[in-house]
Amino acid sequence: LLIGHDGMRRRPADRAVPPVGASRACSSCVRTADVKDACAQCERLVCQSCSRLCSCCNAVTCSLCSTVDYGDVGEQVLCNGCSIFQV
């Protein structure tokens, strides 16, 4: 196990995809899609339409592990790790 930027335990990247025969549904919309990424924060699978790209570190995150900052600059998606540093 690895420790991420947010201090949470993480699995190595090769373990992010579930084994063959396991459920491969998107954790947000529960649909099965061809292209899936694993959330960089919680490692749940998210489809391309549900994934969000962090504006700060470019990590792929799900809707539970990201927040939208509606600041003066405009709308920014931030992962939980980067949202701590944004004031």
UniProtKB/TrEMBL annotation:
Source superkingdom: Eukaryota
| InterPro entries with a match to the protein in the record | Siva
The Gene Ontology terms for molecular function here are: CD27 receptor binding
> What biological-process terms (Gene Ontology) are attached?
extrinsic apoptotic signaling pathway
Q: What is this protein called?
A: SIVA protein
> Which organism is this protein's natural source?
Malurus cyaneus samueli
